[in-house]
Amino acid sequence: MIPTIRIQDIADILIMTFLLYQLYSWFRGTRAMQVLLGLGVVTIIYFATRFLDLYMTSWVLQELGTVLIILIIVVFQTEIRQTLYRFSLLRHILDSDHKTQHSQFQEIAETLFRMASCKTGALIVFQCNESLHDLMTNGVVIDSEITPQMLESIFYDGAPFHDGAALINNGRIEKAACHLPLSVSPDVPQHLGTRHRAALGLSERSDAVIVAISEERGEISLVTAGTFRRMHTPTELIMALDELFRSETESPRITLRQRFFSNMLPKVLLLMGVCVFWVLITTRQGQITTVTAPVRLHGVPDDIFLLRTLPEDVTVQIKALSSLAPPPSKLDLTAEIDASGIREGTTAIRVSTTDITAPSGMIVTSVSPSTIRFSAERKVRKNVPVKVILKGRLPSGLAAWHIVCEPRTVDIEGPASQVSPIVSVTTEEIDAVRLKRGEEYLKNLRAPEKQVSILRDTPVTIRLSTRDKRKR
Question: Which stretches of the chain drop beneath a pLDDT of 50?
């Protein structure tokens, strides 16, 4: 039976659908998308095995999922950083304003086509909104103005920076000889070399604009968002760059209706998938489980001794909101009671559902009994002598000797009614026949009452002593 749908559940489904669609939009066409699809299939199999009570398979998939999460973080750390950067709502405020690059496009385009006519290979990256520092590695900082001489010297055949990419940021050449991530898309034409695969790989992972010049064919390609556009004239390249960077700062106004109805097929599929998972997760919603929770006290006053707690356990009814909630056999609940208000005599404290912490996906609906009674007395401490308990009598040769112990007194602590009548604490029984002069024996002390404690952790020392020594 499908549980009752609340407004919170509808918001939950829509939020998850939106997040998944954003991930789909960013990772579409990349190797990360293939991994996400594989994880989706594994997740479907996991829920199916749980629904069919295939315990071994579901357990293996659950344990495997923990390892897969760690592997994904290691393998796709760059993509994860870029995704978190795109999620950041403050990046537009914190990022520095980009200087206009339109004035440079004329000179750049003419220089690039002049290099292409000489079949000089080149790879130029224009940074837009997203930072490229994590994607472009091994670069050499130049920080120079964009001039034809600088571009031609960087990509001159045989120059040290010839095989890398140049990064243009804020109207200046920031770095040269940079390495870019290669595309792993199987749709890349075979005739394209490493330079074009690098341009495509960077465009799949960022919003950068890349211009690639083929060293073999002398062709110029503009690469954005994982697509190639062949540029035939400098004017065409200038217009394309102007359009890209103008759309960056003057993006066309898109209505809410256009945003909602665009690319509907993946949106509908993701919405249906989220709804199915929501039903699977909430199949146990409303199930009531009864468990027993022990009472644990905190904040008991230092001068109070608790004699009795009635009852020592409470019965808790807990409601499952999700199939992901743990089964009753694995629940470990405790009633944490604030005992700072306990005084001498009998004290009653109410127990509420807030005193019990339920695991994720479950809520506490009731606690029985609702009141716990505590019997308490004033805690006292007393110093009493230690009495040695003998088994038998001392041999006749030791008649002048007496048994003494160290220490001769100890402190005891407990409720006043039990501590007051105690006049001594006894040791464990010791065989008098085996006692010898000059030797010491260790014996533990016996607790005089069940609730009275002896404030000494180590045994007492017993030995024989003459009368004169004992008097001294």
Answer: 1-2, 89-103, 249-251, 469-472
Q: Which two tokens stand for residue 47?
A: 């829920």
Angle at 349 between CA 343 and CA 353, to 5 degrees: 150
Write down all domains in the chain, each with its CATH number in brackets: 7-87+268-281 (no CATH), 102-249 (3.40.1700.10), 288-377 (2.170.120.30), 388-471 (2.170.120.40)
Q: Which residues contact 87 (CB under 8 A, 6 or more apart)?
A: none
**pLDDT at position 384:** 92
For position 239, what pLDDT does the model report? 86
Name, in order, each residue with C-beta under 8 angstroms of 327's C-beta and a sequence gap of 6 or more. none
- The gap from C-alpha 252 to its chain's centroid, in whole angstroms, comes to 39
Query: If residue 116 lies in a helix (H) or strand (E), which one and from where to where?
Result: helix 102-117
CA 74 to chain centre: 15
- pLDDT confidence of residue 237: 86
Q: Which residues of 434-468 are buried (b: 16+ CB within 10 A; e: fewer)?
A: ebeeeeebebebeebeebbbbeeeeebebbbeeee
List, as own/partner pairs, every contact residues 147-155 make where C-beta atoms lie below 8 angstroms and the sequence separation is at least 24, other chains included: 147/107, 148/107, 148/110, 148/111, 148/114, 151/108, 151/111, 151/112, 151/115, 151/122, 151/124, 152/111, 152/114, 152/115, 152/120, 154/122, 155/115, 155/120, 155/121, 155/122, 155/213
Structure tokens at 117: 């006519």
Q: Which stretches within 250-377 are classed as H helix?
A: 256-261, 264-281
Q: Report d(CA 125, CA 199) in Å as an integer.
A: 8
- Over the stretch 147-181, which tens digit does the pLDDT of each residue have? 888 888 888 877 778 788 888 888 888 888 888 88
Residue in the block written with tokens 């004017």: 235
CA-to-CA distance for 409 and 424, rounded, in angstroms? 8
Predicted structure pTM score: 0.40
Copy the structure tokens of residue 125: 């990256």
**What is the separation, in whole angstroms, between the first and last Cα of the chain?**
88
Which residue bears the tokens 């045989």? 158
Determine the Cα–Cα distance for residues 237 and 240; give it in Å rounded to an integer. Answer: 5
Report d(CA 132, CA 81) in Å as an integer: 11
pLDDT tens-digit series, residues 191-206: 778 888 888 888 888 8
CA distance 290 to 218: 77
